Amino acid sequence: MKNRTAFFRKTADLLLNLAAVLSIALALGGMGWILCTVFSHGCSALSWELLTAPSKPYGEAGAGVANALLGTLIMTAGATLLAVPPALAGGIYLAEFGKQSKAADALRFCANVMMGLPSILVGLFVYALLVVPSGHFSGLAGTVALAIIMFPVIMRTTEDMLLMVPDTLRESALALGMSRMRATLCIVARSARNGLATGILLSLARVSGETAPLLFTALFADTWPEDFFTGPTASAPVLITEYTTNSPFEIMHAMGWGAALVMAAFILTINIATRCIFHENRH
Amino acid sequence: MQRSDTLFRYTCLGGAALALLLLAGILTQLGMHSAPAWQHFGLSFLWGSDWDPAADSYGALPHILGTLLTTGISLALAIPLALAVALFITEVPEWLGSLLSHGVDLLAAIPSVIYGMWGLFVLVPLMQEQVQPFLAETLGLLSLPGGAWLLGEDGYGSGFGFLTAGVILALMVLPYMCAVMRDVFRMTPPMLRESAYGLGCTRLEVTRDIVMRYGVRGIVGGIFIGMGRALGETMAVLFVIGNLMESPAGLYSCGTTIAATLANNFAEATGLQQSALFALGLVLLLMSFGIQLLTRYYLSKRGENN
Fold first, then answer.
1. Looking at CB atoms within 10 Å, which of B11, B61, B94, B242 has the fewest?
2. What is the ipTM of this complex?
3. What CATH number is given to the structural domain containing B117?
4. Which of A120, A267, A276 to mutate to test the interface with B (most CBs of B within 10 A)?
5. How far apart are CA B246 and CA A116, in angstroms?
């Protein structure tokens, strides 16, 4: 190591501390800035009509974003229903049966790769899988795309949460004569239920804001999601994209901000609430 | 073992095998649907630079270069930032550290379309009016050698383009990189750290010579995670990149990335163009797959050879 004067070393140290404080200020400041922008633009656009009326082509009176919000709600709920059962089963397999075996390692690797895949590729996949054979865009295709994005995330969190359950608990359950299935479902999974719920809720919040996989699966429509299974279905993220990039009109931008505010509030509430609940349970 | 247990075990295996099936399905579907494009253009699709639906001539080069450039800019901005944030979080008292790390994690929760809106309505005007002239004139980057190439001839941009996309991406990948680096920093044995402090090292020296050296694999793994995110991010980039099917001509120029091209053109594309878009998707898949391999390589060995 080179000889440096104490002054040089202390100054360099001070600079590092300063850089660290500046960086965290920048990161959190950036987030605060984004949220403030959404809040201030969104609040001025928010009205009863916006939240209850369906979207309409430009120029028609009484337009809102309610159909898109409902569409997002249905698609997110549907994706959760589709993704959670196999994902829980897969997580149980990795944590309870597969452990460190070659097969489990390979499947774990696949799940990791899927988690890192760009979400737009999932959109392409579902387009090729559902939209091409059926011949029409549909809300169902969007739901499947969201479920595919959710699946590996929930599978991996399930595994992590089950691994946190102490082995003595498993052994006690088995020693009492329970079958493996009952021990896993009634004892292990039950004692990890807070963690499982957190994982599911966080991934639900994440996919509800996904746009890219919906662009060519669910597409967009100015109607209520009546033909969910057979026709294009509106969703809030796609509405925001359409209204801000493809429209020169102030009023549509304002409606986009309104939808963005509702989305951001929904997602941040879930995030903060689950973090608080989980945090309390750990102590 | 009871029969229900065997059944349960295979049900669970089935759930887990879905990961493999889906991954294989994505690969085969993209491969199948992009086959016409590969047959028509061969491997020269990769370095062709046309995108002309009228002449049915497509090439991937501008998209690949654009993707690499935005990823590069975002990493250059995000790596030092993530290191400093992770360092700060591990060094402050624990209650403050966990509060701050939850705060940084929330950055990852904001939907990308909201980043895109913010970029379009706030960052783009800001870049155009303040940042780009500042970089070009006040900092004098334009008069440096290579400056004209980087910033364009006059040093003024529209606010859209690669630099703006890189800035937004940096903010988006920061939480992912930071989460990994934070864990790495926490894994340094306290004894090593305390010994170094005991020898009279400053915090900078402890960080540089002990913590970062101890966790270098984890840091590299974290960088690759961020890279994978930046590579495939669609919406935020789509809003601010300018969507011009041309190879990047400097930081201020408009262009496109693979993901943005897909999002923009796919819904209306038919025939050979659609196949070419699928081929672009396959390229993106392979790039992201390669990065995942590197990530796993660095993160799974973490701690083993230390």
1. B94
2. 0.91
3. 1.10.3720.10
4. A120
5. 27
